[in-house]
Amino acid sequence: MTHACTVIAFLAYALTCLRLLLYRKQGARHRRHVSWVAWVLLVILVGSAVELAVDGHPIGTFEAARAVVLSLIVFGARGNVARLLRSEEA
User: Which of 41, 43, 44, 46 is nearest to 74 (CA)?
Assistant: First the structure.
């Protein structure tokens, strides 16, 4: 089970990295702080994916679930980090 969780987490991290890298802003304005947050998020995700690929240590179900939920959130925002940071007002 832990090997399957490791593969699931690796795929979730890799797909999330690809989604962030392939984001097209299509007329949205450039915000420096959002770019930095996106860059830091990308570095953390790539580091996590590389660590799983190289080290291959078994991880638990909750860490794999966390990776999948993060991936779902990023895909839900279509890779738009500004949308992730925006707060909704009532």
Answer: 41
